[in-house]
Write a structure and sequence with these properties.
InterPro entries: DUF2336. With about 350 residues, the protein is mainly alpha-helical. The protein has 23 helices and no strands. Helix 11 runs parallel beside helix 13.
Length: about 350
């Protein structure tokens, strides 16, 4: 009887083989990274393309700890391999993506805008911490509506925010004492919004805002005279979204008397103000100031210049939030003045008005 065949040697397990491949890839990736960091700065485009190709092959084979190392190393390189930077920046693991999102100079405004539109709150917090981040990106970040992102922007003293962005933050800070305190530490706050905020905020938010403000600013805030309810309310309205909506109506030829009338009926006075400003080709700040009791004559000029009907104008006068109802005889007097106004005269005069 022939002898039994000897047993074949055991095959390597798939797990063991994968581990070996991973270890080899890790070693090559680390050496490649060291080579890049030790090379001439900035590297030539052809070299960067070659690094991108190498990293693209190695990255899928290494663990998250190694990718975190790579992201931290490349984030400080002025001209890092672009494709690699983008791959790391969109990684679902925040600890891998964060260094790139927070620091990588190779990622431009368009790249970051794309990431903001699709990223998680944690990814957006990393972007919000970027040094010197500009108004376009901070506006997008605030528009996503994440509390942690708002807080990160407030704490990033190098971030540049538009007045509309500050309005949005102040509006939330009315009831968010932590955010109010962080905003007070910024040196670029619009003074009029700060004064309006301490008038409109909750007691807790107001107290923490004033306490955290620099001494000179604190004294100004404490000494600021009380403002009307209407002025305080307008100062914290958020025009960011309504300006977009009003501009869209204008582009399609649908911004006119009927649109403003609809805004008045629904009580959407931020949209009323934004629409008047666009129709008159003046600033929102000017139209805001015309809502005060002592500037109703100028408000009539703006309504005439915007080609509003008297019915819409009267609804606007009566509906201004934060003010007492206008008496019937005052409405009638306003109607007579409105009907005497010539369109060309109103359009000329309204452009010469100044905010109060």
């Amino acid at each position: 009887m022939p002898p039994a065949p000897s047993a074949a040697p055991p095959a390597k397990s798939p797990v063991g083989e994968a581990r070996t491949v991973s270890e080899l890839a890790t070693d090559i990736l680390r050496k490649t990274t060291s080579l890049l960091l030790a090379g001439p700065r900035p590297a030539a485009d052809e070299q960067l393309d070659l690094y991108d190709q190498m990293f693209a092959r190695l990255m899928p084979q290494v663990g998250t700890d190694v990718l975190t190392e790579l992201s931290a190393a490349l984030a400080g390189v002025e001209r890092a391999p672009y494709a690699t930077a983008r791959l790391l920046a969109v990684h679902p693991e925040v600890r891998i993506a964060a260094p790139m999102l927070a620091k990588a100079a190779v990622l431009g405004e368009r790249d970051l805008a794309d990431f903001i539109r699709t990223g998680s709150q944690s990814h957006l917090v990393a972007i919000a911490s970027r040094r010197g981040i500009g108004e376009t990106l901070t506006t997008l970040l605030i528009g996503r509506g994440h509390p942690a992102v708002r807080m990160a922007l407030a704490q990033n003293l190098t971030a540049r925010l538009s007045e509309d962005s500050y309005r949005s933050l102040f509006k939330v800070a009315e009831r968010d004492e932590d955010l109010a305190e962080k905003l007070a530490l910024r040196t670029d706050l619009p003074a009029k919004l700060s004064r309006a905020f301490v008038t409109a905020a909750s007691e807790g938010a107001r107290a923490r805002f004033i306490k955290a403000a620099p001494p000179a600013t604190r004294a100004t805030l404490q000494a600021a005279p009380a403002r009307t309810a209407g002025a305080a309310m307008r100062a914290i309205w958020d025009y960011q979204q309504v300006k977009t909506e009003v501009a869209a109506l204008s582009r399609t030829g649908k911004l006119g008397d009927s649109a403003v009338n609809r805004f008045c009926v629904t009580g959407d006075f931020p949209a009323v103000i934004a629409a008047l400003a666009l129709l008159c080709d003046v600033s929102i700040e000017l139209i805001e100031s015309l809502m005060d009791e002592n500037r109703l004559g100028d408000l009539l000029l703006a309504c005439k210049a915007a080609r509003l009907s008297w019915a819409t104008t009267a609804m606007l006068l009566r509906g201004r939030p934060g003010y007492d109802v206008i008496q019937a005889e005052d409405v009638e007097e306003a109607r007579k003045r409105f009907e005497k106004l010539a369109l060309s005269e109103a359009q000329w005069k309204v452009r010469g008005l100044k905010p109060s």
